[in-house]
From TrEMBL:
Domain Response regulatory: 3-120
One Pfam family per UniProt: Response_reg
Organism expressing this protein natively: Hallerella succinigenes
Protein name as catalogued: Response regulator receiver domain-containing protein
Signal sequence segment: none
Keywords tagged on the record: Phosphoprotein
């Protein structure tokens, strides 16, 4: 069963994504920030990582850089609802880092799951 890690400081987003991906046949772990996520992804190989950008402790850019060092940016989906500026600003920066895909919050869940399916299929 493919493994997905969801990193988001919004409990509702984590919960909805976990439920939807779980119903789609994925084994899903969650973390509320990049620091807690690092503890998970240092021990587990994830097929896909969905990360928010703006979070306390360790943000999504740091997660993206960690995966960049592992040469696995094609497994990252960045999501953002924005912060002090528009979510598009953060997502544009994430896309320049080379992530697989970007989504504004709340994402279109059907499109997001289709992207997860695509990433998993490309690494099968």
């Amino acid at each position: 069963m493919p493994k997905v890690l969801i990193i988001d400081d919004e409990k509702d987003i984590r919960s909805v994504l976990k439920d939807m991906l779980g119903m789609s046949g994925y084994d899903v772990d969650t973390a509320e920030d990049g620091r807690k996520a690092k503890e998970l992804y240092d021990k587990t190989d994830y097929d896909v990582v969905i990360t928010d950008i703006i979070m306390p402790e360790q943000d999504g850019f740091e997660v993206i850089l960690d995966y960049r060092n592992k040469n696995q940016l094609d497994r990252i989906i960045a999501i953002s609802g924005g912060g002090r500026t528009s979510s598009e600003d953060y997502l544009n920066i994430a896309s320049h880092f080379g992530v697989s895909s970007i989504f504004s919050k709340p994402p279109n869940y059907k499109d997001l799951i289709a992207k997860v399916d695509e990433i998993v299929a490309s690494h099968a």
